[in-house]
What does this fold into?
Amino acid sequence: MSKAPILQAVGVTKNYGRVVALDGADLELFPGEVLAVVGDNGAGKSTLIKCLSGAESPDAGQIILDGVEVSFKRPQDGRHAGIETVYQTLAVAPALDIASNLYLGREMRKKGPLGTIFRMLDGSGMRKAAKDHISALGIGTIQNISQAVETLSGGQRQAVAVARAAAFGQKLIILDEPTAALGVRESRQVLKLIESLRDRGMPVILISHNMPQVFEVADRIQVQRLGKRAAVVTPKTHSMNDVVAIMTGAMTVDKKDQALSPVR
Amino acid sequence: MSSAFVLLFASITFSFFNENFLTPSNFSLILQQVAIVGAVAAGQTIIILTAGIDLSCGAIAVFASMTMAKLVQGTPGEGHPAGWSIWLAFPLGLAVGMLGGAINGFLVTKVKLPPFIVTLGTYNVFVALTLTLTKGTVPSIEMDPFLLTLGHYVNLGPFRITTGVVFVIAMYSFLAFVLRYTGWGRHVYAVGDDIDAARLAGISVNRVLMSVYMVAGLIFALSAWIVIGRVTVASPNTGSDLNLDSITAVVIGGTSLFGGRGTIFGSLIGAIIVGVFRNGLTLAGVDLYYQLLAIGLLIIFAVTVDQWIRKARK
It folds into this structure.
């Protein structure tokens, strides 16, 4: 089975002054898979993700989305191209309600002159659609869509952020340390969300420090080291200890033993 | 709407002390008195909703009013021709207000200074510009009839209020609609609530902030129009209390100084509460000094309640 990658990064390089954050990094994300990106601090995970989502533009290298080379200047560019990113810091406005947060920055207007002339928002339409998105992901614990986000638990807030990404992500979703700020039970909710995204055929890039979580949900695991891709393995072929060894440089994996093509 | 309850409670309390308090004519008077602060507080509210503050609002209002008056008046006695047409002078005065707001907005968004510092600086700049323009004197001029429009009286049932009061209520209604029902309004709240979240959600944060400061500047210039209507001259001294009084109205009206929470009508109610306290205490025969004390305690009370609410929600 040979599928073309939905998103591909080739030799992406990014320097911050004299600090080399990315030194020719590669990445391939295939349709319908969860790709975890792991690595030590400073291995270039975040920078790579920022280049993919448009938060940073790379100094050199190519980013190819669906076979077309793209160059994002701003996060909005990545979003317009169909890449949604959920950031580590809970990027929700606490005083606004769930529906407003879901549609923040791309509100729906009412149809007819009320929307075009008076620029009125379609509040009930957004609430209804938000409710559908939330329940489609199986987030049953959220009852009231008009509830302010600050009244939700950390896991529920992250669920709102993931639901927003799922609602608008056309091509793929990037999750940057989605469980870093969460407790055990709440992390579990988010992992279930990731699985339900995959079940709906949405490709996901998951950046995480948490090895057990990565091994639980990822189809393939890309290990970053010193700004480059050190190896791509699967939870089936390698153990957590192997991954940590690759991260620290204690172990190298031969190209033929890597999982460079889709496993699903 | 806790501020509405405060207003109701204060009104009932004051009516026990003086039977003239709870009369249409007295309330008409209070509304006329608070119209100016109320108008400025509208602009102040949208700025505070973005977690900003404007200490220069009164100075912008006065500078706009002096611009209008000076242009209409010309400079008689110095060989200059008569003043400009009101249809040029008035829009130019409004433009000056917007420009003042744009300068504040530019310094906040591009130079990235805290709004408090920016407007503390521009406050002095606008006061200086006003004094330069007037050479420190109050111009005694036959004011243009159009500039006095908002000082006219209208009878609404038993109430006798100025057109300025009607104008302020209309302005608040419009702003309330825009804040509640448009994307721009929602973005104003989002920027004040969590500026990083707003940016990550794809909102052009700087554009929102810039527009807020410019709209506020326009509102301050429109407030100047009400000032001219009420005092019938453009005086460089009328706006000195507006800077802090407008913040008082916003805070008592329940809008959080940390941004993102509050309603625009709260500020109008806040302005009316201050007016009711002043008027009620006067009718009850309370000394002016104690009136100031009461307003001071009211502010502290309002901010304490705001803090409690924030803590309870976290």
The first strand of chain B starts at residue 153 and ends at 156.
